[in-house]
Amino acid sequence: MIRTASAGLVLAAATMATTAATNAATEAAPNAATTAAPTAHAAPATIVQVDGGRIEGTLEDGIRAFKGIPYAAAPVGTLRWQAPQPVQPWTGVRSAGAFGNRCMQLPLYSDMVFRAAGMSEDCLFLNVWAPADATRKKLPVLVYFYGGGLQTGDGSEPRYEGAAMAKAGIVALTVNYRLGVFGFFAHPELTAASPDKASGNYGLLDQSAALRWVKRNIAAFGGDPDQVTIAGESAGSFSVSAQMVMPMSRGLFARAIGESGSILGGRGTTPLARAEEQGTAFARLVEAPTLNDLRALPADRLLEAARMPGAPWFGIVQDGHAIERAPRDTFATGRQARVPLLAGWNSAEQGAAGVLGQDAPTRENFQAALRRLYGNDAAEAARVYDYDVSDAARDLAGDRWIVHGTWKWIDLHAKTAPTWRYYYSRPRPATVDGKPAATGAAHSAEIEYAMNNLAGNPVYRWSDDDRQVSRTLHGYFVNFIQHGDPNGKGLPKWPRVTDPAPNVMRIDVQSGAYDPRDRARFEFHDRQADRQP
């Protein structure tokens, strides 16, 4: 999996009760175009012409917000499991005051809170936050892809809210993309029918289509189509690394930010032939032998089947089209988009239980786990993880899951373009209902800090120290989005990865560059990857 359930805690009970009710609904799309005329009191800057027609957003606290903008046709009926098609035009002025549907998904992670109108296959919407001053042009742009293991997530989540970025002079977007069986399903019939002889990766193609929408339309919001930064966390970070190798996305972005994850490690990509086998097995599971039968099934039937025992995990496919070759080869030979990259990971992406299970963190138990995981290579693993058992088991669990792939991405890309690496170690504080502070920075813990959205998460007792960390990390992100370099006034100097050590920026209450001396760990996992058949 690209994401674990330990990523965070539920929001306040009242909020989650509302969310649970929404999660239970699989509604028809409530976001069809409205034809009402613009209200008399609307500021002219909130009415914008985009692909398909005019939209009317809202203005609050100096920020214009446009929500639920369709960037492609609804992928329903015969468009299910096809590349995204042009948006259907509407007449009049379409309301852009509420989030569109989230894409079809199971309720997997407790820290996700959705403000979407409902859930539907008709979900290819994006959201834009921009400064109210319509006379300011050529602003840098941030396009953020949500996490959730490519199985869940939505652009309406409060932690991705773009208003704070807009206040910093950035036009910020969140993008919905198809998930799970709807977004990454491969099948021999789909491959045969495709002009590119490929299938799967529809979620990645959605993201690329959204970037083309940005190229054509973002100037209407004051954005510069030549200054687009793509960013994401977890599955969103996997997506960023994927967009960097996709031919159809070349020239659509100028910078990239990755938070915890890439397609260069772990369960990065699946070969097309194997993905087609999984798709055929799934078709048998739902008793739909042909593509027409599969497309005739209700969306909720497919969704429920995805949770059945034996159902495959649908992820990124090395299809020969969107992902032409092994991503590691692409980066190793410098064929990826050579744009500035800022990327890193958190100090506790997984806990020690990811290696030890229910066993106590003793040296004996750790050695037994290494023998189980690595056999004849256990002694080599023991040498590179020869420190406090609790810390070593935690690091090994995170490295195996998501950290090594992120490091490899950074390490290879730094050979071709300016690259900065971070290590985020600020634990979340105690919760308002009395749960103690975390002992490390868990997976996804940095998102609210980076996006300057602490106030949007009422679960935690945010302190002045947390707000200081947010100012630092947010400041680095803003500088990078604006200039392609995280450094700026009032922030500790952040060296490039290629600068002499120390060159890793540790983000915490006291942030600064340091040398973690962790290369031996990652080179061990490189050797393990090379030994795989």
TrEMBL record:
Molecular function, one GO term: hydrolase activity
Enzyme nomenclature, EC number: 3.1.1.-
Span of the signal peptide: 1-24
InterPro entries: AB_hydrolase_fold (IPR029058), CarbesteraseB (IPR002018), Carboxylesterase_B_AS (IPR019826), Carboxylesterase_B_CS (IPR019819), Type-B_Carboxylest/Lipase (IPR050309)
PANTHER family membership: CARBOXYLESTERASE
Family the entry assigns: Belongs to the type-B carboxylesterase/lipase family.
Protein's name according to its UniProt entry: Carboxylic ester hydrolase
Annotated source species: Pseudoduganella lurida
